[in-house]
Amino acid sequence: MKALSSLSPEVRQYLLVTGNYWAFTLTDGALRMLVVLHFHTLGYTPLQIAALFLFYEIFGVITNLVGGYLGARLGLNRTMNIGLGLQVLALLMLTVPAAWLTIPWVMGAQALSGIAKDLNKMSAKSSIKLLVPDSQQGMLYKWVAILTGSKNALKGVGFFLGGALLALLGFTGAVLAMASVLALIWIASLFLLKKDLGKAKAKPKFRDMLSKSRAINILSAARLFLFGARDVWFVVALPVYLSTVFGWDFWLVGGFLAAWIIGYGIVQSFAPNITGKKSGHVPDGRAAFAWALALAGLPALIALGLGAGWPAQAVLLGGLMLFGVLFAVNSSLHSYLIVSYAKEDGVSLDVGFYYMSNAMGRLIGTLLSGWVFQAYGLVACLWISSIFVLAAALISIALPKHGDATQQPD
């Protein structure tokens, strides 16, 4: 406590924001894995499982669109605490007797969780920018990288945690345990998070939510297809396939998906070095096209390998690990470009519009993951993934091209 009290107010707020985000991310990842595995064991079809996440993704789209507007009017401390409180409520909704866990009830709980997740994410990422002076862009980049990389790694840990808690405590016990811990963190945040953080002096107009930037509109469209390409196999199809075809138990399914997300987070942290930022090369639209094109063929190759009868575990697991590496670079490159374009255009609310497209891609991918897998199998999901990434690459051709000298790395 003495060490914490000696830190600057900005650093203490950063640690609090990051701690809130970490705790939320753990419960978010664990809850997704709990729902997929638990309702699969109850006999739900892949399409029904996908439907359980329908409201989660739909309300994520809406929340991302209005999140920047709400944060500017209410303050980021309030939107973050609202997000934490809603997640506690969503978890408690799932502790009811098993007979009450109907599809509409679970979809309602997932709707609250979707709102909570995107309020929390928007608040965390926006808060850090406000805690660092504009003149210290190197520190800002470092803090954002720590938050983003650790978030994705912890989401992977959450996947493993969900499988482990389901095996150890059962569904109700696991959800109740997470709700209890997160409630304590929420209460602490209500007292400790700085009041009126990020509250705008000039109230933004409702129409300001929509982007007027051509570059951000194009990047948002590419982002939609990129994340749809991931979730079309990752959300429902892959966990069910691992459980039914490979015969893996909860521990193995959760462990593999956790390893994938953790590895994704680690690679994402180093992606700026991979794309040349450390050496002074600033990525632009050409880099977004090239990296998406490199990723586009990989799901198709995995599908061809599975269709040809090659060893399924080696082809699928090895291929998806490589997909994770390339996808992390693509995602990190997009994250860099959105900051670059928003800064050039001077429209901070464009970031919320961009993440709305990200959520829309997850929504489309989630629905397709359940329907296509149930009707046609995992190979079909992989072909659609490849088509989606190719669409993201082709859209990226229209992104602006900047000379290497236009910006220098911080």
UniProtKB/TrEMBL annotation:
Q: Which Gene3D superfamilies match?
A: MFS general substrate transporter like domains
**Which spans are transmembrane here?**
21-41, 47-70, 82-103, 160-193, 248-267, 288-310, 316-339, 351-371, 377-399
Q: Name one GO molecular function term.
A: transmembrane transporter activity
Recorded hits in InterPro entries, A to Z, give: MFS (IPR011701), MFS_ArsJ (IPR047769), MFS_trans_sf (IPR036259)
Record keywords, A-Z: Membrane, Transmembrane, Transmembrane helix
Q: Is this entry keyworded Membrane?
A: yes
Q: What is this protein called?
A: Predicted arabinose efflux permease, MFS family
- This chain's source organism reads Ectopseudomonas guguanensis
Q: Its domain of life? A: Bacteria
